[in-house]
TrEMBL record:
<dbReference type="InterPro" id="IPR010998">
    <property type="entry name" value="Integrase_recombinase_N"/>
</dbReference>
<dbReference type="Pfam" id="PF00589">
    <property type="entry name" value="Phage_integrase"/>
</dbReference>
<keyword id="KW-0233">DNA recombination</keyword>
<feature type="domain" description="Tyr recombinase">
    <location>
        <begin position="189"/>
        <end position="399"/>
    </location>
</feature>
<keyword id="KW-0238">DNA-binding</keyword>
<dbReference type="InterPro" id="IPR013762">
    <property type="entry name" value="Integrase-like_cat_sf"/>
</dbReference>
<dbReference type="InterPro" id="IPR002104">
    <property type="entry name" value="Integrase_catalytic"/>
</dbReference>
<dbReference type="InterPro" id="IPR011010">
    <property type="entry name" value="DNA_brk_join_enz"/>
</dbReference>
<dbReference type="InterPro" id="IPR050090">
    <property type="entry name" value="Tyrosine_recombinase_XerCD"/>
</dbReference>
<protein>
    <submittedName>
        <fullName>Tyrosine-type recombinase/integrase</fullName>
    </submittedName>
</protein>
<keyword id="KW-0229">DNA integration</keyword>
Length: 402
């Protein structure tokens, strides 16, 4: 079992190796796999080259998008070549249905017990990890989110193939519509949020411990950004095309403060700052030995490293958030809130964005909230965060008689 795609950073080298016919020198295992495939190496090479083209177009803006599409389309190609023994452009509706069945219940030889690295450098070549597999075993089986991601990736891939005249049909939408494994979403779908008590502990415990452990000032400000400004954690992280720095905080002529953010799709937006947030901004900056408010030319990263230069990546920021979650979990247990503590163990950093937006949806105009969230459509904000109709329906139905 050989992976077909390396990291985003290595993608352009892979494309060059295919163009120059030098894949064997850098990726000998992949080259051997392609040469031994029953479809024929030329078909596989052509389809692999198109796969790299697709990933380059759709994945280069965001490493997270690249990884998501890579995982889905890579294993789809492997299944098509090894199981169906067909080109991905020869697959019909029934083949796509068979692939969905395979995703729901993969062959055990296609499963790994944990996420594994694909390639690493070894004596001048990229060595394959023998423990890598296209799927990772999950106790509870395939999730609805996994199925939705699979259909999205395949749909985008075949749409791109049609535009590039590599395919003339896309069977994915009809397969998805009739998929027996997809559960139709409930009329009521609330976002994952922290309860008022959980947020009080997450923020309050971190704040209380700042005096004895000043490094937690960074945790406190990170929490304030994610919840108070509705930020995705990637929007606080340093990326190849964007480094969040203090000069991205700016004040208009009327004295209102904003933070310039690069969001999904490399779209810039200016998020409004509340008076309370500005006070925490001052507190955090003073803990770093900076002036209370940012200057227009200030190059310091918004979330700083305790050691080294530059800003934080997504993994490091998640670790900061998890540290505060863990402190709150322990304190909740000590105070006898065992259920709240257990529920908090399932929380992720993205819950903070949902928590802030859900809370503020009760008081802020929908359009203002939508623009601060960075939603391209106001209907998205309405669908996720506005639950007034549900509340009114519940109130009108609670007193009905049997």
């Amino acid at each position: 079992m050989t992976p077909l795609v390396d990291t985003l950073r290595q993608l352009r080298y892979l494309i060059a190796h295919l163009d120059d016919e030098t894949l064997h020198s850098e990726y000998p295992a992949m080259s051997e796999f392609l040469n031994s495939n029953r479809l024929g190496d030329q078909i596989c090479l052509d389809e692999l080259k198109f796969l790299y083209q697709f990933l380059y177009v759709y994945g280069r803006k965001s490493e997270a998008t690249f990884n998501r599409f890579r995982n889905e389309i890579e294993r789809f190609h492997l299944w098509s070549w090894l199981v169906q023994e067909k080109s991905v452009f020869e697959l019909k509706r029934e083949d796509i249905e068979a692939y969905v069945d395979f995703v729901v219940e993969p062959d055990k030889t296609w499963l790994a017990d944990s996420v594994q690295w694909r390639f690493k450098n070894h004596q001048g070549t990229r060595q394959v990890n023998p423990n890598w597999r296209p799927f990772v075993h999950k106790e509870n089986g395939v999730s609805q989110q996994t199925l939705a991601s699979m259909f999205t990736a395949l749909n985008v891939f075949y749409k791109f193939a049609i535009l590039e005249e590599k395919s003339f049909a896309n069977f994915v939408p009809v397969v998805k519509k009739n998929c027996p494994y997809l559960v139709v979403q409930s009329q009521i779908k609330l976002p994952d949020t922290l309860s008022d008590l959980q947020w009080e502990y997450v923020f309050g415990v971190t704040k209380d411990l700042c005096e004895e452990n000043p490094k937690l000032e960074r945790n406190l400000f990170t929490l304030a950004c994610l919840k108070g400004l509705y930020l995705r954690i990637s929007e606080l992280s340093e990326r190849p095309q964007w480094s969040p720095v203090m000069s991205h905080f700016w004040q208009d002529q009327d004295g209102f403060w904003f933070l310039r953010i690069m969001g999904k799709g490399n779209k810039l937006r200016d998020v409004t700052l509340s008076d309370e947030f500005v006070e925490y901004l001052k507190r955090y900056r003073q803990s770093r030995g900076l002036t209370s408010l940012p200057r227009v030319d200030e190059p310091h990263p918004i979330i700083h490293k305790l050691r080294g230069q530059g800003g934080m990546n997504v993994r490091q920021l998640r670790r900061i958030v998890q540290e505060s979650f863990d402190l709150a979990i322990d304190k909740l247990k000590q105070d006898g809130f065992s259920e709240e503590s257990e529920n908090l163990e399932a929380a992720t950093s993205h819950w903070l964005r949902h928590t802030g937006a859900t809370h503020d949806a009760q008081t802020r105009p929908l359009k203002h909230l939508s623009e601060d969230l960075g939603h391209s459509k106001i209907a998205t904000t309405d669908q996720i965060y506005i639950q007034t109709n549900i509340k009114e329906r519940a109130k009108s139905g609670v007193k009905r008689k049997l």
